[in-house]
């Protein structure tokens, strides 16, 4: 079992490094423009990425020329952006330099890895027996939960028993990493 968990950890770290590299390149090109995204807009960005994956899974054809894997990578990076935005709030301007953005990116990527390790231990590598389409559906479910939580907050209401938005972002990140791993094998 330890060998499977070690393999998963190494694969997870490899995927995160790929995502980090892309994130850093986009920071170079655009800066932290995502800082202006309000929570609902970020949720909608996650939604369109996950819906595109589901659409491609069903239609088996992309007219834009990009496949499913890049969309999972985008979900990982936007999930981490979501965690950053939750921790520092959104801004009306780009108020974060690239060094600070990367520091926060690394912090939340590490937290996602640690959560995956704990859950993977308890669930005994169950993700390996799942279909990629199930990751997509679980991600869409998590996004719907986030929407509901956001709507409750707008009404001034609180969660009764459920995990917060941050836990849902973490799960989206982890399912998307599993999707990238599966599509790479």
Helix content: over 70%
How would you spell out the order of helices and strands? HHHHHH
**How many DSSP H or I helices?**
6
Main beta-sheet strand count, sense and barrel state: none
Structural class: mainly alpha
Task: Give average pLDDT, whole number.
Answer: 93
Describe the protein in words.
Helices cover 76% and strands 0% of the residues. It has six helices and no strands. Helix 1 (2-30) runs antiparallel to helix 4 and helix 4 packs across helix 6.
Give me the secondary-structure topology:
Blueprint (H helix, E strand, L loop, with lengths): L1 H29 L8 H21 L8 H21 L9 H26 L8 H23 L10 H20 L1
Give a brief rundown of this model:
The chain is an all-alpha fold and 185 residues long. It has helices at residues 2-30, 39-59, 68-88, 98-123, 132-154, 165-184.
Features:
185 residues, mainly alpha, 6 helices, 76% helix, globular
